[in-house]
Design brief:
There is one protein chain. The protein has 67 residues and is mostly helical. It has one domain. The protein has three helices and no strands. The longest helix has 23 residues, at 44-66. It starts with 12 loop residues before the first helix and ends with a helix. This is RNA polymerase sigma-70 region 4 domain-containing protein.
Length: 67
């Protein structure tokens, strides 16, 4: 997969993290996975995977902050 190409994954990791967090927030607001995927030009399953990954990382970060 070429990075930086239109409709593909963003070029820098910072952009990637921002996009993934944005996807997570959209989903939290109740927007369906299919609609998010269509907007970003990625598959529904990829959106689900990104959402789960962000959720997992958020849990870890929240856990680290508490301790």
């Amino acid at each position: 997969m070429k990075k930086g190409a239109t409709g593909k994954r963003p070029s820098s990791s910072k952009e990637c993290v921002e996009r993934n967090f944005f996807i997570y927030r959209l989903r939290k607001k109740g927007i369906p996975f299919e609609a998010i995927g269509r907007f970003f030009g990625i598959s529904k399953n990829r959106v689900i995977k990104i959402y789960q990954t962000v959720e997992k990382k958020m849990g870890v970060e929240l856990y680290e902050i508490r301790n």
